[in-house]
Amino acid sequence: MAKRVDAAGGAGALHANEQLSLGEGWWDAQGWYDPRRLEETLVGKDGPLRDKSTGLELTHPSMTELIVDMALGESFRPQTVLDPAAGFGNFLYEVGYRRPSVKRLVGYETDSHAIATAQARLQPLEREGIVVQLREEDALHASIEREAFDLVVSNPPYVRIHRLGLSREQLRAKYQTAAGRFDIYFLFYELATAALRPGGRLAMITSNKFFTTVSGGKLRRFLRRHYVPLRIIDFRDASPFRAAVLPCVLVLEKGGAKSPASRAIELERIDDAGRAAPLLGLARDPIPPTIEVPRLGAPAVIARTSVASISGWNDSEDPWHFGGADSDSVRSLLERGHSRLESLFDRFSVGIKTTADGVFVSPFDQAGFDSGLVERELLHPLIRGRSVERWRVTWDPANGYDKYLLYPHTADSAGRTVPIDLARYPRAKGYLEAHRAKLEARSYVREAGRSWYEIWVPQTLSLMETPRKLVFPDFAIHNRFALDFAGRFVGASAGFAVPASTLEDDDLWYVLYMLNSPVYEYLHKRHFGTSILAKRYRYWIRHVRAYPMPWPVDGMRAELAAQARASARDGTEPPHHLTRALRAFHLSETEAQAVKLHIRGWLGDGYDYS
Description:
Layout: E1 5-7, E2 10-13, H1 35-43, H2 61-72, E3 80-83, H3 90-98, E4 104-108, H4 112-127, E5 131-135, E6 149-154, H5 168-174, H6 184-195, E7 196-207, H7 217-226, E8 227-234, E9 247-254, E10 263-270, E11 290-295, E12 298-309, H8 324-335, E13 339-340, E14 345-350, H9 357-360, H10 366-370, E15 379-383, E16 391-392, E17 403-406, E18 409-411, E19 417-419, H11 426-434, H12 436-440, H13 443-447, H14 461-464, E20 469-473, E21 475-476, E22 482-484, E23 489-490, E24 494-499, H15 505-515, H16 518-528, E25 530-531, E26 537-538, H17 541-544, E27 548-549, H18 554-570, H19 577-583, H20 589-603
């Protein structure tokens, strides 16, 4: 078998005298292939692969080792291996080096630089008798043999298809997961499935966005139908990539029965300079409590691990939240017999999206409002994400962030939102005409048959002017729900809900008390929310409206509502928040204690658990 040498650049280095001449700087001082130098050459400031629209993310050598190690396990002996997005051939080389059983390595790649590197890298394996077939071709449009491979391993592009210039219609005709606003990596999962034989394995690193998004529903169902999970790792904010990508690694087996040893592992980035296990520890049992995640061209990060068995692997489009049996049991207790939050509200919605904030929002701080630039009746206070604190909205146009919104819409006799007649507002007309070129550049507004000066998503005027709203930012580190009683408009970086007319103010304050409690912090982060960078979570409308909401007796609701009012007035947290919120769920003493301990263990420090 070909000799393996680990150079400073990482595992699997290849000596320069064994390959094609690929240029200076791709080799270290000893003449060994160096992945870090290769990255600097190809993806550096002036590198030929610098264009981010390609979706290229280089895989750190340690990550390659981890993925291959998990795919092969102790006994899996693949003979045929496919990488449909082969890049520099790292995965194919790693598998070919590791397993003498390998007879054939096949890779597809559209970039000529990468293909040349991969060909050079795999030459020693060819000399050992392995058939290497590298094709400069887009795998999504290639005719790949069906059920011909024992293992598919890859790091495909992560971008939306419009950035790659691919035909959405052609892809939808060929791939069933090409639905809605799909990402290109969806299709690589489907391609791999067709190429794998029954009992074959899939090991892939992609974005984790499909775990919870609506557009990822078909892919989640597709994977549940065709595979059993072996190991799933959600890196969350401990990303091994420098780009704003939150990746996951899936190791799945086509068909067969789910093993009790199947594990889901979640990572959480922590500020810790102490010792941590190497990345390969994620392939071992027991899983180390902390892991060092290396990154190409950036310092490593330390992450805390959370391990659970994989439950709920069923034929559905349900979001993926891997909490294990204990977590599922706690969620069942908190949902038992309770209606969803949406039952108390007439409407949930995202805020207004102008697609031209520089015209409609940015100029209108307090000075802009006072300037008379446009008619004041067209300017409305605008709540944005940072305006929403826990318990209260802190809107102040003198603070440099909060603004008014120029709203060039009105309601017709049927209540429909329509553009204003500019002739009636000469100052607004002059202002908008001065920005006409910028506004008309929004081709999608024109193509939709709309007036050039309209806001793209204006929402309904009557909805915006509703005097009572529940508001929340679209992403936050902690739950930040508040009530607005001033009829302010809501911007795109926040969501809102209009309560039913039958919901009394006290009941609305009770709902606020619950939503800001550690119970809902846990529910959102563990079961509903989507983790993004810097420990933040997305607060999608579809998730918030699906929260369970218990309805205790009037006296308890009034007591908790009073606590919420006090917190909004004083900016303080209510005492005994977790214990009092749990009382509303009608749990037995034993159940409440078990739930409390579980929430405390999962959320960690920083909360009042009294």
